[in-house]
Amino acid sequence: MNQSIKTIVISEQASTSELIKLYLQEFENFNFLAAVSDFSKAYNAVKELDKCLVIVDISYYQEQALNFVSKITSEFKNCRVIALSDRPQVDLVIRAMRIGASDFLQLPLIKDEFFEVLNKHYLDMTGAKPKKSKCRVVTVYSNKGGVGKTSIATNLALELAKITKENVALIDLNFQLGDVTAFLDLKPSFNISYMLQNLDKINEDFLLSTLEKYKDTSLYVLADPPYFKQADNVSSKDITKLFNILRDTFSYVVVDTSGGFDSKAINALENSDLIFLVTIVNLPALRNCQRCMELFDKLGIEADKVQILINRYMENDEISADDVEEVLGKNIYWKIPNNYFTMMSAINKGVPVSYVNPDSNVALSYKNLALMVSDSIYRQNLTKKLGKV
To answer: Which end of the chain, N or C, is more open, meaning fewer C-beta atoms within 10 Å of its C-beta?
Structure first.
């Protein structure tokens, strides 16, 4: 016998609630429990249920509705939320998804689209189908040393964890000269070599208990091996398998690689959804950046997932941002401002830059970069679907 998921509808419009009730009766796998317009009553109803679907119309009392979504999704892990609106602006959709809504549909509802979303939730909530990973792997790369690659990886990973409240893994794939643990002042009990030797044992509980959690955040760090020889027997196949396992546990995986084009770095690049190619604004660095792009092309890495990130950017530099874009033939994705004293203070203290001065230009830049990365997961599809920017 099929499980029936209890469903609560919240809307100011009786016609919307009635239509959803009819659709749910037709779909059969969801049991329409109540239609209310009061968020307190809805909260009390959800509190009494082991598992439920909540459909929230946020066309009215938007802030109150969003606060409600945030509250129930954070408190009740077996509750899923579908948000609705007759004015689904992209920024609103992104905000709703970030605070916990699983899906966002436009009103008036399109029956086939609604049924597709219901079916996905039913399979997820009943365990009838393995949940598809929504993880995004972001690799920070440069073949030139000293451009701030590790600073970018560590600060980006922390900001993603703080903004999304989701589990984020920071992986140090620089097997010879990794610095991630130094940048975060960590002394982990386990490292990537141990993980690769125990791939068959790894599951979500194993990862979350073994990786080093950074303070009171949802950032987990997988350190480089302490001894060079531990990297000798690591194969590309093992790295790929590790990435696949990480995808099932984490919402984001941020990778700091070596500066070369060894098999481990190439494997990370091939397994990435987004590659930040880091450069600073001087001619040797830009030439190296050009060579990297040429090598990426020869390796068959999609150009769309490679984005240019400038570190230590100064507005009045002799080489302008326009010059950089002309030389590289590619738009700059992000510019992190030059703030030597704040960055060096963070590095010397072994903390992220936001812990030194959260209001500094460089800390705010990392925060906004993380927002950009997390938003783009939804924004790419939403702009096509809604036809809006």
So the answer is: N
